Amino acid sequence: MPAVARLFLATAILLTQTCRPQPATAEDVTLTLADGLDTSAGAQIEHLVSSWSQPIRDSPGRTATARFRELPGGSDTMRAALAAQAQDARDDPAECNDVVMLDVVWTAEFAESGYITPLDAADFDLTRYLPQALATGRYKGRQWAIPFRTDVGLLYYRKDLLDKLGRPVPRSWAELADTARAVKEQLGVGGYVGQHALYEGFTVNAMEALGRAHPLLSPDGRGVRLDPEAAARAFDWPVRGLAEGWIPASAVDAGEEAAIAMFKSGEVAFMRNWPYAQRRLESARADLPGEYGVAPLPGASVLGGWNLAVSSCSRHPEEARALIRHLTAKPQQEHVRDKAGFAPSLTELYRSPNLNQYTAAIRPGLSNSITRPVTPRYADLTRAVQQRLRPALTTGEVVNAMRLLHTDLLAIVAKGP
Ligand code: GLC
Predict the structure, then answer these.
(1) 50-102: per-residue pLDDT in tens?
(2) What does each C-alpha distance from 147 to 127, 150, 262, 320 come to in angstroms?
(3) Which of 47, 134, 285, 385 is deepest in the core (most CB within 10 A)?
(4) Are 227 and 135 contained in the same domain?
(5) Atom 9 (ligand 1): residue with closest C-alpha?
(6) DSSP class of residue 98?
(7) Could you tell me if the CB of 204 is within 6 A of ligand 1?
(8) Which domain holds residue 391?
């Protein structure tokens, strides 16, 4: 081979070698998993995340681990933070959250915005998850997120007070209103607290009061279904409760934690809350003012819960998927149930004949749950529900509030997906 040709070949080989993509780094990989405040008993979620490690495939000696990035605030604040971080990560990879914990209502928005990447069903055994929970991670025919924990509303009640009145655990909102009024009138104790503070919990509680009969949108999120007059009648009981005093005035500002505090201190006989509240009550059992029980809500529960998704910005999607598989595997899900005090996402953990009262109460809530509207404009929708309906709790102008909400919903739907 002539010298010039040899030189040309050598340069070409050298160039190919230099330009061939090299492994990102020879170091270990630390994934970031972003979640909201770890409200589990004893920061168990952080523990589960930071105790994970796994060898990196085809990279002898390299290991993937994960760090827990805890975002402050309630779910509305957390959504805004995650969206901002996803946008920042487009310019600054250091901002990337490889794995994100998403409220079940965010899938559509995060998928449409390109913040998360669709999952290959073959990477997960999708048959193991609660079907209702799994469906919340689906959007436009693809699976975007895997259920980590589920949530249904439960009714916590003071057994001793019901015994005194000789009344059963209420089975409808009307019966709950009736018993809560009797508790107030006959025993001088407040009747009920839910989540009526200005945040996503308000939307959940409002939709539960409206019930399955009064949906806001059509199932595909493209049409408005709200009937203002009929919906106003269904929303009447919390308004009356506040006006008549069997819902204490302070309950208007209660979120999940404040509701637990009110129930614990004996201010109310009934509390609507998520399953995690049971762990809180259990650990304070000795100080509680009386015996308590847990039952399904007296109406359909809104389906809550949190799903894990892989961010589009992640440079380690394979490890990110492995972390999700790990966190949703049976031993970790048992830990979620037994140590963290959350409702797990695997069907088999609800099958045992020896379920305790609390896990047994979750089951009917799941099968009878209402799904919040599936739309990438969910943030606009929930803001409208909160801003229109919450003031009506105290002004009593519910029909007008529902009409205004109806107009808002039409505008939201008109913007398209
Ligand atoms: C719980 C639910 C979630 C819901 C939120 C409202 O965390 O799991 O779905 O949006 O409460 O505050």
Answers:
(1) 999 999 999 999 999 999 999 988 888 999 999 999 999 999 999 999 999 99
(2) 12, 7, 30, 15
(3) 385
(4) no
(5) 304
(6) S
(7) yes
(8) 168-302+377-414
